[in-house]
């Protein structure tokens, strides 16, 4: 229990005991309390300043993530009175430099594409004439050596024309200013059957059967029919050329979540090496250079295919195992309007 007399005695001692200059013990207690209050105020102020700077840093990081997501026209807008401002200025300067470099690279790439487009377009006309003349020479009376070299020249001219046409189509597809989608409702099952019919003779020579499956059979997609057919032709041609040992090619279409159409071109032939899967859609990339020389490939077929898929707002990937090689395309049911 508290003793009132003891408390009164302690208070009396505080009031009566004095130090130098006449200061009472009670006055030193007040000074101590005051010092503690000032110290608490300083700590609270320091914590508030620290918290504020942490919030500023978080905002800078959020702005940086926003820019990194592809919003390269955005800059960090706020100004601070600390060394953090140097970081903000450096980030904005770095983004400006990056955007300028990207634009310069885009212009260089566009110039290259324009050059390839113009050259490939201009070279097709004389190549057509050369092929025609070689065709006439092939049909004329020639000795064995003449016929041999005329045939070689004729075949090489055909390869050059195929390369020029592929180059022209590839660069045209990449150019957003020269290319437009012609969208129309496309009956997927009918299209797949017609495309397969166009390769039946070549497939029969190699003992390859086509299987066409569409779920549902009345599936319709908004797409550019000419481009979709070219895309499928490229994939089927690759399967026939490079799918050694294949006995069947599957053309499969499935409706996915009422939003997408999944097209699959599959063959059970030779497996594509894993190291080639990531580069297989790059222009001029060939899985086996020697094999492409024999088959006459240009290395642009899959690059053209990917450009067509991209233009429709879709995706394409390749999966290959010892049992099955599949090119899987996902297209929106309603493709974006032509730009």
Tell me what the structure shows:
The protein has 339 residues and is an alpha+beta fold. It has three domains: 65 residues, no CATH class; 69 residues; 149 residues, Histidine kinase-like ATPase, C-terminal domain (Heat Shock Protein 90, 2-Layer Sandwich). It has ten helices and seven strands. The strands form two sheets. The protein has a five-stranded mixed sheet with strand order 2-4-5-7-6. A two-stranded antiparallel ribbon has the order 1-3. Strand 6 and strand 7 form a beta hairpin. The longest helix has 56 residues. The radius of gyration is 38 Å and the shape is elongated. The model has no long low-confidence stretch (mean pLDDT 81).
In short:
It is built from ten helices and seven strands.
Helices and strands in order, then pairings?
Blueprint: H1 4-16, H2 25-68, H3 84-139, H4 144-174, E1 184-187, H5 188-198, H6 200-205, E2 209-215, E3 220-223, H7 225-242, E4 248-256, E5 260-267, H8 274-277, H9 289-295, H10 301-311, E6 315-320, E7 325-332
Parallel strand pairs: 2-4
Antiparallel strand pairs: 1-3, 4-5, 5-7, 6-7
The shape is elongated
Number of strands: 7
User: What summary fits the major beta sheet?
Assistant: 5 strands, mixed
Question: If you consult CATH, what is the topology of the largest domain?
Answer: Heat Shock Protein 90
Domain module count: 3
Which CATH top level class of the largest domain fits?
Alpha Beta
Instruction: State the helicity in percent bands.
Output: 55-70%
The fraction of residues in strands falls at 5-15%
Count helical runs: 10
Lateral arrangement of strands in the main beta sheet: 2-4-5-7-6
Separation of the first and last Cα atoms = 90 Å
**Taking Cα atoms only, what radius of gyration do you get, to the nearest Å?**
38 Å
Structural class: alpha+beta
Based on the coordinates given, report the CATH architecture of the largest domain: 2-Layer Sandwich
So, the CATH homologous superfamily of the largest domain? Answer: Histidine kinase-like ATPase, C-terminal domain
Q: What is the overall pLDDT average?
A: 81
Low-confidence residue ranges: none
Pfam family, one: HisKA
GO molecular function: ATP binding; phosphorelay sensor kinase activity
Membrane topology: Multi-pass membrane protein
Transmembrane segments: 31-49
């Amino acid at each position: 229990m508290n003793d009132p007399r003891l408390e009164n005695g302690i208070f009396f001692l505080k009031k009566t005991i004095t130090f130098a200059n006449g200061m009472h013990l009670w006055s030193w207690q007040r000074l101590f309390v005051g010092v503690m209050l000032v110290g608490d105020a300083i700590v609270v102020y320091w914590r508030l300043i620290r918290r504020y700077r942490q919030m500023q840093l978080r905002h800078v990081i959020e702005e940086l993530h926003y820019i990194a997501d592809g919003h390269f026209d955005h800059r960090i807008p706020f100004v601070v009175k600390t060394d953090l401002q140097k970081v903000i200025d450096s980030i904005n300067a770095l983004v400006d430099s990056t955007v300028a470099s990207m634009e310069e690279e885009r212009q260089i790439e566009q110039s290259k594409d324009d050059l390839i487009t113009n050259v490939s377009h201009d070279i097709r006309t004389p190549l057509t004439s050369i092929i025609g003349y070689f065709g006439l020479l092939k049909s004329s009376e020639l000795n064995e050596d003449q016929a041999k070299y005329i045939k070689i020249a004729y075949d090489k001219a055909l390869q050059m024309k195929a390369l020029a046409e592929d180059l022209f189509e590839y660069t045209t597809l990449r150019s957003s200013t020269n290319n437009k989608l012609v969208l129309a409702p496309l009956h997927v099952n009918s299209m797949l059957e017609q495309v397969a019919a166009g390769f039946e003779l070549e497939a029969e020579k190699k003992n390859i059967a086509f299987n066409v499956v569409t779920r549902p059979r009345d599936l319709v997609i908004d797409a550019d029919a000419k481009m979709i057919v070219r895309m499928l032709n490229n994939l089927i041609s690759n399967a026939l050329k490079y799918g050694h040992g294949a006995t069947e090619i599957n053309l499969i279409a499935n409706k996915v979540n009422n939003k997408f159409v999944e097209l699959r071109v599959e063959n059970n032939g030779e497996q594509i090496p894993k190291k080639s899967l990531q580069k297989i859609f790059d222009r001029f990339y060939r899985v086996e250079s020697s094999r492409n020389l024999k088959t006459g490939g240009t290395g642009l077929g899959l690059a053209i295919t990917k450009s067509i898929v991209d233009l429709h707002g879709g995706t394409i990937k390749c999966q290959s195992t010892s049992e099955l090689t599949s090119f899987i395309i996902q297209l929106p049911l309603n493709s974006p309007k032509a730009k």
